[in-house]
């Protein structure tokens, strides 16, 4: 491990910590004590965790079979990351549609904006990597940003759909 | 099974779902789910709702004979 890699890793962690702190500040209602999830939300999130766990298990089983056939769709690191992203997306989607993704002290619109922007940045970076790559395999083989971006945009889309559903039911 | 008793008790106090939710410390969607019969609250939350609305457990959560 080179010194440059270690410095990059530490700086990356620090940037993520700062971004998380700023996001939490922006997406929490002012003058409101950060609340916990209520009992219905905890139950729904439990269901979401179960589904996410099952998704990860099924994905890993399929990936093991494909891996044993020696079909290298993606690097091992990215393959595992895709499994994690899939399960997180399932958890987020189930929680969003069960009204269990946000605490009462959260500002859903702010969170949606933050997730949408980070998703767009990652997708843009992923597309840029893909366009810069010399071979077709390099475009996808280790393109982590692209898949992180797609997952975040999928979560963002779920939030938009849920908001539209809520507005329609409020109007009725 | 819809909880119409809770809905009418809340309306009797002229409270919105959000006001009741804030009074008992849950999300508005949780109150909505209870009123629609999509969620069965714990006894702890039932008691908090009863205290907030000034009703008894029987008045809000005990099913009528025809239910």
Question: How would you describe what is shown here?
Answer:
The complex is a heterodimer of chains A (172) and B (67). Chain A is mainly α and 172 residues long. Chain A folds into two domains: 1-31; 33-171, no CATH class. Chain A has six helices and no strands. Chain A has helices at 3-26, 39-68, 76-97, 108-132, 136-141, 144-171. In chain A, helix 2 (39-68) runs antiparallel to helix 3, helix 3 (76-97) runs parallel beside helix 6 and helix 4 packs antiparallel against helix 6. The mean pLDDT of chain A is 88. By secondary structure, chain B is an all-alpha fold. In chain B, 63% of the residues lie in helices and 0% in strands. The longest helix of chain B is centred in the last third of the chain and has 11 residues, at 43-53. Chain B starts with a helix and ends in a 6-residue tail after the last helix. The model of chain B has no long low-confidence stretch (mean pLDDT 89).
List its traits:
heterodimer; A: 172 residues; B: 67 residues; mainly alpha; 434 Repressor (Amino-terminal Domain); 5 helices
């Amino acid at each position: 491990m080179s010194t440059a890699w270690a410095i990059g890793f530490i700086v990356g962690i620090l940037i993520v910590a700062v971004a998380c702190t700023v996001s939490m500040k922006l997406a929490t209602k002012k003058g409101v004590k950060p609340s916990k999830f209520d009992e219905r939300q905890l139950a729904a999130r439990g269901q979401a965790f179960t589904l996410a766990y099952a998704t990860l298990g099924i994905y890993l089983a399929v990936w093991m079979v494909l891996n044993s056939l020696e079909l290298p769709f993606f690097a091992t690191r990215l393959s595992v990351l895709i499994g994690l992203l899939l399960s997180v997306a399932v958890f987020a989607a189930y929680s969003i549609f069960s009204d269990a993704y946000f605490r009462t002290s959260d500002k859903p619109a702010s969170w949606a904006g933050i997730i949408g922007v980070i998703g767009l940045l990652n997708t843009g970076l992923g597309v840029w990597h893909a366009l810069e790559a010399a071979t077709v395999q390099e475009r996808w083989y280790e393109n982590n940003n692209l898949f992180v971006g797609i997952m975040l945009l999928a979560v963002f889309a779920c939030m938009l759909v849920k908001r539209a559903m809520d507005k329609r039911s409020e109007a009725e | 099974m819809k909880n119409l008793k809770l809905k009418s008790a809340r309306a009797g106090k002229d409270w919105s779902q959000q006001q009741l939710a804030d009074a008992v410390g849950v999300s508005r969607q949780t109150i909505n789910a209870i009123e629609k019969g999509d969620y069965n609250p714990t006894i702890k939350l039932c008691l908090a709702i009863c205290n907030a609305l000034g009703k008894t457990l029987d008045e809000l959560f005990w099913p009528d004979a025809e239910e």
